[in-house]
Amino acid sequence: MTEQDLPATGREWHLAARPQGWPDPADFALVEAPVRQPGPGEITVRNAYLSVDPYMRGRMNDVPSYVPPFALGAAMDGGAVGHVVASNTEGFRVGDAVLHGLGWREYATLDAAHAVKVDPELAPLSAYLGVLGMPGLTAYAGLLEVASFRAGDTVFVSGAAGAVGSLVGQIARLKGAKRVIGSAGSAEKVATLVDDYGFDAAFNYKDGPVAELLAPLAPDGIDVYFDNVGGEHLEAAIGALRVHGRATLCGAIAQYNDIDAPAGPRNLALAIGKRLRLQGMLVGDHSALRGQFLEEVGGWLRDGSLRYDETVVEGVENTAEAFIGMLRGANIGKMVVQI
Ligand SMILES: NC(=O)c1ccc[n+]([C@@H]2O[C@H](COP(=O)([O-])OP(=O)(O)OC[C@H]3O[C@@H](n4cnc5c(N)ncnc54)[C@H](OP(=O)(O)O)[C@@H]3O)[C@@H](O)[C@H]2O)c1
Questions:
Q1: Model-level pTM?
Q2: pLDDT tens digit string along 95-123?
Q3: Helical H runs in the chain?
Q4: Which residues line ligand 1 (CB under 6 A)?
């Protein structure tokens, strides 16, 4: 490996200002930065796909959380897949495809211990950011482990046309759910849920109060609620859950851009009489399931029983807009940026 093989500079995204409420493109800055040669034990990767994920919105606030906040005026990070273009370690060769955590940039030089090789023959590279990656494991673990899903359960999932939700509904169906119901934010997404992903019923939550839209689709109530949204959705699900029902609290995207404290759910006391279990989750706690997840989901992908979509935005210069678009619902399936 010689130094000539790397460009002198590459583009990377910095957080220019902490968003107040909804993020604005002006909160982000695309900066030309030196591409560092790999030191001992390091690799340099040319990123091919960048992930934009809802949790990144929380990292833009300067508050303590389970992941540290992005620093102002410094490169942002996040999931990415790409190819090794320079290696200073025995385990990785130029051309290897890898998954790592230095996204939001064209080139990343990192400790090879923080990169995982992925097989581009098994699945397109972008799948390792979605169906075979963090969102896929979230869906799998959140449904099967956290919600203790059992065949015969009636399952309701919100954010159902997104990366996590679209897989939750399909995994429930493949595992023998009695009924799978989803909510999403457009008529097109609702049609995708029923026609492409095999949900039994779906509704557009923008058409009216969630509880009223859910009730006729779940006349006997629900056993499991997979919550990607929080707020009104969670309140409606608490109302619809049957005795000993279980909810996975995976995300609360309806309030990620709120400045004021969220209003609900106002009916939490129902959890007492119904003996509900409402359990939060973080995907990082479930890495022991990764092998089983890859085997089972990989099998469903190969035999065509599980579908996945991606919304691909072209160009590193469009990453901030892709992120904001994802928060606004511009994606079906996983939102990724191809560079
Ligand atoms: N706990 C964990 O470890 C973990 C891991 C991964 C993801 N998550 C969470 O899981 C959820 C889904 O993540 P994802 O990566 O799969 O994202 P995603 O669903 O692919 O994309 C976000 C979607 O949220 C929906 N949305 C935005 N505002 C909404 C609102 N006010 N009400 C209802 N839906 C709204 C939009 O779709 P519509 O058009 O349908 O509105 C948008 O497409 C997020 O809450 C995320 O934070 C948690």
A1: 0.98
A2: 999 999 999 999 999 999 999 999 999 89
A3: 55-59, 134-141, 163-174, 187-195, 210-214, 231-240, 270-273, 290-302, 319-328
A4: 53-55, 135, 138, 159, 161-165, 184-186, 189, 205, 228-229, 250-251, 253-254, 281-283, 326-327, 329, 331, 334-335
